[in-house]
Amino acid sequence: MVVVLSETLAGLIAAAPSAPFRSLVVVAVGAFLEGPIVTVAAAALAGAGQLPWWGVWIAALVADVVGDTVLYVLGRHGDRPRVARLLTRLGLTDARRTSLTREVRSHLPRIVIGAKLVDIGAVPAYLAAGLANVGYRRFLAWIVPTTAVRVTVLVGLGYAVGDRLARDLVERPWLLLVGGLLVGAVLLAGRLVVGRATAARRRPRVR
């Protein structure tokens, strides 16, 4: 993932000054593969005047929604043996399938918003939404606005950094890679902390 991220950011940096549209395509692909890091890095370029902020926002939003839709579609075909094995590899194990699909049917807004904003268990949650035969329009009705809020925060964060460090980013573009990796490390640490806290609450008390 680090190699893919490095290549994505390198392509983004190289294309931004002369080909903004191509840069936004790179943003969309990068956001699909590793959304938060690439989105913040692209927004930093926007803050430095290299890209339009609205283009970064749209590219990141579309990539995120497409990625969630792919998971949803996989879930809709989860009864097929080959797809079922793939779902297991993606985190929707047999032990979680029944309970998670039940939760999605009963509490779709809470599941979708929690998975999107906290970014914990998003993959199995969206697979379960498809497996539970949740209507796609209903799925999008919660995915799109929640994604818009998430992307707005990430773009705003990156834009603010790029606006303050515009000269440094132009002269030393490798700072984008370092900053992106730092953002990824912070997000990963947050996921681990929240994941452990959630597991601790679900663990039965030993008397």
Automatic annotation (TrEMBL):
It is a multi-pass membrane protein. It comes from the Bacteria. Residues 39-159 form the VTT domain. InterPro entries: DedA_domain (IPR051311), VTT_dom (IPR032816). It is found in: Cell membrane. Signal peptide: none annotated. Keywords: Cell membrane, Membrane, Transmembrane, Transmembrane helix. The chain crosses the membrane at residues 24-48, 54-75, 139-162, 174-194. This is VTT domain-containing protein. It comes from Pseudonocardia nematodicida.
